[in-house]
Amino acid sequence: GQQVMQIPQYQHVQEGEDFTTYCNSSTTLSNIQWYKQRPGGHPVFLIQLVKSGEVKKQKRLTFQFGEAKKNSSLHITATQTTDVGTYFCAGPNKLIFGTGTRLQVFP
Amino acid sequence: GAVVSQHPSWVICKSGTSVKIECRSLDFQATTMFWYRQFPKQSLMLMATSNEGSKATYEQGVEKDKFLINHASLTLSTLTVTSAHPEDSSFYICSARKGLAVLGPDTQYFGPGTRLTVL
Questions:
Q1: Within an 8 Å CB–CB cutoff, is residue B104 touching chain A?
Q2: Does A95 touch chain B (CB under 8 A)?
Q3: Which of A33, A44, A54, B19 is spaced 20 to 30 Å from B36 by Cα?
């Protein structure tokens, strides 16, 4: 079945540093979604990417969908303590979630 | 718009008892709802897909007789954990998909989750 892996599993950064998480699928995806889950909270939808090579920005967050539509990345510029949480990518349809990357930001 | 609620937010029960968790879409009709389970520091694992008026589709390895799902209306799905045991303790999250999603065909909206502890 479809598998979605994310690296790294954990990332600790100093506030102000950049952060990137990578998502890789075993199969081609029609679209990919990104979610953020704060500690103790539930996943919150961030964005959906559909087109090959698509790049979307949300303030300090940059999302990219690979040309082959099998990988994606989320880059956060100048992290803030409010960015703390686990970031998940998810495949379409039943939303098979990636393994997640837990981000910790130290002030 | 697109608010999903879950009730209860947390529950503690004795081993062997059954627990029902409700998932409601408050301001839209959800043709499809999904139930996930999340263990501490792990990803969300899809348990089943629930379509209004039909039987739920369970993922491989999920016992349908233990996790009963009912999607009686377009705004309500319930998950009943029958004869709960300590290993069933987990964070259960539902999500709902709009029939006509504005943001995209697969966008789902998540409930706040239910933390189940079985003693």
A1: yes
A2: yes
A3: A54
Q: Are A42 and B111 within 8 A, CB to CB?
A: yes
pLDDT band at B101 (very low <50, low <70, confident <90, very high): very low
CB atoms inside a 10 Å sphere around CB A15: 13
Nearest of B59, B26, B32 to residue B44 by alpha carbon: B59
Q: Are B67 and B47 in contact (CB under 8 A)?
A: yes
The percent of residues in chain A predicted with pLDDT above 90, rounded, is 75
Q: Which residue has the higher pLDDT, A96 or B39?
A: B39
Residue numbers of A between 36 and 55 with CB closer than 8 Å to B: 41-45, 48, 50
Q: Which residues of chain A have a CB within 8 Å of the CB of B42?
A: 100
- Contact between B29 and B99 under an 8 Å Cβ cutoff? The reply is yes
CB within 8 Å: A95 and B95: yes
Which distant-in-sequence residues (6+ apart) come within 8 Å of A30 by Cβ?
A50, A69, A92
B107 part of contact set with chain A, CB < 8 Å: yes
Task: Encode pLDDT of B2-32 as tens digits.
Answer: 789 999 999 999 999 999 999 999 988 887 8
Nearest to A98 among B34, B43, B49 (CB): B43
Strand order of the β-sheet with A61-65 is A4-7, A19-25, A71-76, A61-65, A55-58
Task: Give ∠ CA B41-B13-B118 in degrees, rounded to 5.
Answer: 35
Confidence (pLDDT) at B27: 86
